[in-house]
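Recall the central idea of this unit: under ordinary conditions, the amino acid sequence of a chain determines the structure it adopts. In this exercise we apply that idea directly, starting from the sequence alone.
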Amino acid sequence: MAITLVNPGGLPTIDAYHQVSVATGSRLAFIAGQVAWNANGDTIGPGDLTAQAEQCYLNIAGALAGIGAGFDDVAKLTVYVVDWTPDKMPLLIEGITRAATTLSTAHTPPATLIGVAALDTPEHLIEIEATAVID
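Accordingly, the structure predicted from this sequence is:
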């Protein structure tokens, strides 16, 4: 695996992600922002942040599988959530947890959460992009 996750001393330990990822692989992969579409372009979980977060993670995993990589190769995530407020965090974490269970991973790379006014279509509540490092 090309990624080592670290929580350095002097920084808070966050359950949802690590503060630092150290990459030693030789190839970078940049995964476009994934929304809650299935393979047919249908939105999964309209109005349901948890279901949409889960689908975004599964889409990232599918994109990675298509290039011979896995979720454990993710070095950084950027998460965009429409009309973000802190009370939505449990819904987001539940979706991530469900996806992690499905993907059999406990990998928690560094992540940035950004609240946005809107995404590509009104039914999309979340979009997640990923950067991966592959051996």
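The chain has two helices and six strands.
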